[in-house]
Amino acid sequence: MEASDDKKTFDFVNIISRSEKPREKGLSMVLDKGFGLNQVQDLMEAAHCIDIIKLAWATPRMLSERMIKRKISLYRENNILVGNGGTLLEIVYKQKKTEQFFEYCCEIGVELIEVSNGVLSMSIEDKADIIRSAKSKGMSVISEVGKKNPLEDSMLTLQDRINEAESDLKAGAHYVIIEAREGGRSIGVYDDSGGLKEDMAKTLVDELGIENIMFEAPDKSQQARLILLFGSDVNLGNIRPEDVIALETLRRGIRGDTFGKL
Amino acid sequence: MEASDDKKTFDFVNIISRSEKPREKGLSMVLDKGFGLNQVQDLMEAAHCIDIIKLAWATPRMLSERMIKRKISLYRENNILVGNGGTLLEIVYKQKKTEQFFEYCCEIGVELIEVSNGVLSMSIEDKADIIRSAKSKGMSVISEVGKKNPLEDSMLTLQDRINEAESDLKAGAHYVIIEAREGGRSIGVYDDSGGLKEDMAKTLVDELGIENIMFEAPDKSQQARLILLFGSDVNLGNIRPEDVIALETLRRGIRGDTFGKL
Amino acid sequence: MEASDDKKTFDFVNIISRSEKPREKGLSMVLDKGFGLNQVQDLMEAAHCIDIIKLAWATPRMLSERMIKRKISLYRENNILVGNGGTLLEIVYKQKKTEQFFEYCCEIGVELIEVSNGVLSMSIEDKADIIRSAKSKGMSVISEVGKKNPLEDSMLTLQDRINEAESDLKAGAHYVIIEAREGGRSIGVYDDSGGLKEDMAKTLVDELGIENIMFEAPDKSQQARLILLFGSDVNLGNIRPEDVIALETLRRGIRGDTFGKL
After folding, report:
1. Alpha-carbon torsion (B71, B72, B74, B75), positive or negative
2. Is residue C5 predicted with pLDDT exceeding 70?
3. C134: which residues sit within 8 A by CB, 6+ positions away?
4. What is the CA B74 to chain-centroid distance, rounded?
5. What is the CATH number of the domain that holds B44?
6. pLDDT tens string C125-172
7. Cβ of A45 and C68 within 8 Å?
8. Prediction pTM value
9. Chain A residues within 8 A of C148 when measuring between CB atoms
10. Which residues in chain B are contacts of C14 at CB distance < 8 A?
11. How many domains does chain A have?
12. A50 lies in which domain range?
């Protein structure tokens, strides 16, 4: 069933090799804003290029449990980890339903818990507590660093981000996502036109380790730049479904932007 | 069949409540540029978030009647009203086939007639005549105010828009759409970069009544801004299919932009 | 099976007439970045508006041969020519596997060979050799002029482009594509914001002949501008799947931008 077992088209063409799933590095995470089942079926042709699907913010709250369960089953059959959006965790935290949230995630097959404080004011310590709590239930955890509001985000110093990321990792987060939202503008490592702040990205990688970071990178130019800077095996998130295969060609050195440059 | 009857995912999470369909306010209108049947099937998982589907401008003219009829059936089974694009009405008006147009719309299940003068020079009186004519055939009517060409649109004063909208409403239009096109730039209430002209939007709402206006708002930032200004139940149009669920999360206060702010 | 045989919706509405497929002019080429089969099925409702599908750059290399073959079959049943992306040709050229590439294209049903030098430094003479080689195997050939890197592309003069295009045509290329990539910015006939450089476009048309050129034109504003400048039957490429029907309405004079202007 897994598409990676099939003979590929033009398989006599040499490409940069990468590890197979489950991967330790070079992860690609796709943002699912409410895909329907036909679209998911189509997307699974590229399942070998997708490590994680994030059910975007609180979108599942508007969709039927029946449908979300079928979707999660399809993802898991294709060896894709399914995670929640950080905003949903923040909402249940504010509503004091975190325990119920973890149990329900287990029940429906959401195995990867994302812990963020992109909207709420939440101390580093409280965030670490939530991470430890999810870990203690046997779940995998990732954390996110950054604010959803560009003005609030701009008030975080680089050192603030590093401190928070280090605290999250110490509490048990598998890796830290650098927030960029669906839009990839004016937040974290991106400027107002979506350009990469290279010095900032490099410092984060130097301080935290490339294997401990995932950059949200919705735009092709962002993906290409990060791959040229950090190599094929940089972890990238918030990929649009129509760009999943395109991203893999960037990683493999078979798109114009990276051909002959990796 | 209607997805809203199903148990929702994470249904223990509290959200802002809204009226069920058929709604009087807080309508969401999706622009169908020629969706295929698999895509429509997927979209119907979010049918409870969609009040109206507009068959964009004259796109149905290029598609088979067989397929459009099946699509309209699917929409109507899911309690979604189907409307024509205003440009198609303007074309048949110019070709002196308005009567034939109304009859054919009835025949294929297009129940909502949009009357616009976005391309043609059409007097307010002629527009009102068309609205009355459609009403007399038992159809629901909405009107659109604004020009498709940014230069022409910029020559309409705010008072021109209010006068025309009032005339349309008086002639029987159910509500008035504020034109923004598919792109949402340089027209009506949006500036050249898609930012909302808040004073203009507020004056329109004050003069016409929030329940009598639908703002076309293709971009997320426009949707979020209008919801923060006018509340969850502002009528919004030209929503992209992939953004329907995202819009509903904005209205319900469970996306970063509106979480804790409504 | 071909949708063009069906009775169209609103078929009493007069539109600008165009030749049927296979067309000699007014071609529309769609960029397939890895569509799944449900999406292809949907897209085939508009098959009468699509002349060519280009399998974008090296994306097929990441997909199963089984799936690509099924996709190509669907396209061919609907009288759509299938072509490779130029970057893939450049990769096999560099890997000295051009002959194997041509044979494999024949085997899987890729009938249209695109020859480009958008990434590699390849002399005009070498490019012409590849074109002649593909022609000698009975394949149709198109060529592409322009560089994928904006900086490199900016160093090509207009005369360079004309010389190369003339050499390609003389070697047997059916027509020449003016490179714009998926993004349509800062390359060839487009400026940094995607605006059309009209003088440049006109000179290319004057020197090479409108029937010998296809403009890549991913954005609606680019498509509308080129149709208004050169007429309904300008050849346009890199159309997004969701815009295929919209483009046809532009060509037929039934969208706001071209209604009453062709």
Report:
1. positive
2. no
3. C102, C113, C115, C141
4. 19
5. 3.20.20.70
6. 999 999 999 999 999 999 999 999 999 999 999 999 999 999 999 999
7. no
8. 0.96
9. 256-257
10. 95
11. 1
12. 28-251
